[in-house]
Specification:
Layout lengths: L7 H10 L3 E2 L1 E6 L5 E6 L3 E4 L4 E7 L5 H6 L2 E6 L5 H7 L12 E3 L5 E3 L4 E13 L2 E13 L7 E3 L2 E3 L8
Antiparallel strand pairs: 1-11, 2-3, 2-6, 4-5, 5-10, 6-9, 7-8, 9-10, 11-12
Length: about 170
Amino acid sequence: MEPHIVDDLSAFKLAFRRHAAGVAVVTARTPDGTPVGFTATSLASLAAVPPLATFNMARVSTAWPAVEGTTHVIIHLLGARNRALADRLSGPHDERFAGDHWAPGPLGLPLLKDVPAWMLGRIVERVPVADNAVVVVQIEDGGLGVDDDALLYHERTYMTPGPPLTP
């Protein structure tokens, strides 16, 4: 029997756990140069011309002051081989950039190594919504790494898609 949803918060959480999402990491720097980043499953394309993307974040996030005060971020699209990287960038913030899994990239921003794709985005809008924000970026540059299976987040677990469905 399906669980009975009794309130709006339960309905939201239970439904979105069943919605598979791609996994991305957004990186920036604080004004003093400290690298910051976070795992995001809210990345979406907004338009192709001009090339615009959006991501959402909590304004109480430790990375928010950097995103609020900078002009650019790097968005990294993760693949199956980056699962440990996804865990690291969603773990304790003081451990996210310990190690050699990144290097300074365009504009000195943290560029994660060995990802299938990355994009440099100029922030064009920060829209506050409750305690969160929708951040709109215009893509200015990017690069491709080695292709990989998609990394998905579904039912609070990282996974890869199965074989294609046939009609």
